[in-house]
Amino acid sequence: MSSQASTLLAGPNLPPRWPAPLTRFFSADNRYLPPICITLILLAGNLGVGLLESFSRTALAITTSIVFEMTLGLLMYRRVPNLASAYISGISVGILIRSPLFWPYALCSAIAITSKYVIRWHGRHLWNPSNFSISAMLLLVPGVVATLSVQWGNTIWPMLIVWVLGALIVYRVKRFHITATYVVSFIALSFVRTAFTGHSFLAEVAPITGPMYQLFIFFMITDPKTTVKPRWAQCLVVFLIAVVEMILRLAENIHAPYYALAIVGPIANAIEIAINARRKPAVVNQLAPAA
Known about the structure:
- The structure is a single chain.
- By secondary structure, the chain is mainly alpha-helical.
- Helices cover 69% and strands 3% of the residues.
C-alpha cells in the first residue's frame, strides 16, 4: 500500500485500519455476516463429508422459517422483521436434524420461529429457537427424527473452515469467551467421565471434534438473544451447560448437548429477567423524589 493510501485510511496520527466497507462488513452490527458464514460452512461440509441429508430438505426448512417469520411479524407487529435470524434458524434445522421424511424439517422450523413470538417473558426469549425446536422434535417424534452425527473422518479442511468462520463470528459479536469456556469445560469434564465410564480420555473428548458440536459451540450457545448479559454469568452458564451435559451423557443420552442447553439456558434467562424486573421499580422509586 502506498503512503498516500495509508494516510487516507488511517490519518497522519492513527494506526492503519481496514477500509470503511470492510469495517462495516465485519462489524457486529452486520446481521448478514453470520448467515453468509453458516452458508459457507454448509457448502464446505456438504462437499467435504456429506453434511446434509439433502438440499431439498434443508431448502424446505429455510423456506418454512422465512415464511413463518414474515407471517408472524406481520400479524403481531405489522411489519416484516429482518430475515437473517429466520434464515439461520432454518439452515440450522436443515443441517442438524436427520429424517427420511420431509415434514419434520418443516415442522421443526415452524416450531423454532413460533417459539420466538410465543415463548417470551418481559420481551425476551427464554430458549434458543432452533435448540428448542430440535429438542421438542427429539422428545415428541424420536422415531422419525435423529440428529447430525457425521464425523469428519480424515478430511481436515471442512473442520478448519468451520473453526475459522465460527471463530470470526463469535469474535465479532464478542462471544468468543463463551465458546472457549465451553470447550475448556468439556475437555476438563472428559477426565471426570473417564472415572465413571472406564473409557479412554481420547474417546470421551472425541465428540467435540464432530460437526454437530462445531455448530453447537459457535452458533447455538452464543446466540446474543438468548444468553445472559454479564460476561461472568455467560461463562458460568455455559460451564453449567457442560456439567448438565456430562450428567446426561453418563446416563447414555445421545442428545445430551441439546437437552443441556434447553434446561440450563431458559432457567438462567428467567433468573436474569426476574432480577432485572425487581430492580426497575427500585430505580424508579429512587428517582421519583428527584423528579
